[in-house]
Amino acid sequence: MRQYNEGSGIKVLDRAVAIVAAVASGDKSLAELSDATELPRATAHRIATALEVHHVLARNERGEWSLGPALPSYTGGPSPRLLAAAAPVLRDLVETTGESAQLYQLTGTTRTCIAAAEPESGLHNVVPVGSHLTLSAGSAARVFAAFAPVDAPFDAADLQQVRDDGFAESVAEREVGLASVSTPVFQPDGALVAVLSISGPAERLGPSPTAKWGAALKDATARLSAEL
């Protein structure tokens, strides 16, 4: 029995849906994708490659197809692949810096914390996962304003500096006593997918969070981008 449903009368669409459904159950090589859908390898490859162009599918480091970032973005949820790649990066940032680390995605007129890690002890900044924060203050907000079409009250020259440097920092901007530094995370096609941040007490990160932890954050961001 064939694994795809041709009931719509649009064969290529039915096959594309079957391929997405097969990959949703786990990453698939071309041979596995062909077996799961009972499509010829050439057909499965042609459709999967087209879906990859539209970011519905993506390739992992083994060349297998996995779900891409487009589907979660349509529903407003974070990509499972992004969350999986971010988890060890956030943990290592906390271990290196002793400060809190967060990953934000743009959600309309706010930025939402989709992943975070905090030190086990000591004074630190806690941003619960799922928190919706303003786009009008904070280093992460500045990064979104610099690289995405959002309405934010930042000076154009400041945003150009963020684009030139690849960093944004803030001290006591969103909250008294809090400082942070943030960098953009890009997909392979150059699209902004998230913002990675380190935050903590201004007395530890100030006067320049970038000078203190910018290099560590840049390395972490490069690692996360490479995973995507």
TrEMBL record:
Pfam families: HTH_IclR, IclR_C. Gene3D superfamilies: 3.30.450.40, Winged helix-like DNA-binding domain superfamily/Winged helix DNA-binding domain (1.10.10.10). This is IclR family transcriptional regulator. The keyword Secreted does not apply. GO terms for biological process: negative regulation of DNA-templated transcription. Residues 10-69 form the HTH iclR-type domain. Residues 63-228 form the IclR-ED domain. One of its GO terms (molecular function) is DNA binding. Keywords: DNA-binding, Transcription, Transcription regulation. It comes from Corynebacterium haemomassiliense.
